[in-house]
Amino acid sequence: MRTGIRWLLRIVFLLVLSAACGTFIPRPLIAPVEASSAAVTHRILLLSGPIHTDIAIPLDAETRAAFSFLDNTGFPLGHPNAEWLIIGWGGRAFYLETPTWAELKPLPVLRALTIDRSVLHVDLAGHITEPQSTVTAFNVSEDQLVQLRDFISESFVRDAGAVVPIPDAGYGEIDRFFEARGYFNALFGCNTWTAAALRSAGTGIWNPLPQALRLSVAVYN
After folding, report:
1. Per residue in 18-43, pLDDT tens?
2. For the whole model, what pTM was predicted?
3. From which domain of life does this come (predicted)?
């Protein structure tokens, strides 16, 4: 009995240590160079919930051009009232079958804890109020924003050069789901994808939870 408790405590300690190291050790290992105050900067938002994070990119002319491939899928990228393009990555079963916590089912949870195919969720937003507890804002340079757009664009699965929408999948009238590259699991999930997307702005090397990712962004920005 005591041996089992010791091993359990060791596992918990290793998990806590890994989460702490993942938050405070920067990715890349060399901290990003701060942009000159005279350089052009763009505001990026990290949107976080209890277990999931999304990235919000300002929907300017350059962003619309970079994601123009979405126009051919019926996604309303040119919506006149949209100010932000919101992107999230996650496990297929959990993402598609759990629009609200009230609809939580055992099988998607099991897939999320083991391994699942991934999808990208794309949405639009108008004005987002700052500050608030679920919104973390920071500035990136022009080059960093280009890298971020490229990372997100390369996360889409393509068939003959075109992204692959998932039919009849979405939480509302505007948002869409798309097939994504990579596989989802509990250790390398939605928040680690978000951290990888934001690595040019400075994040820890492993951020499995929104709280760790927010703290990491705050430390390095």
Report:
1. 444 344 444 543 334 354 444 668 89
2. 0.76
3. Bacteria
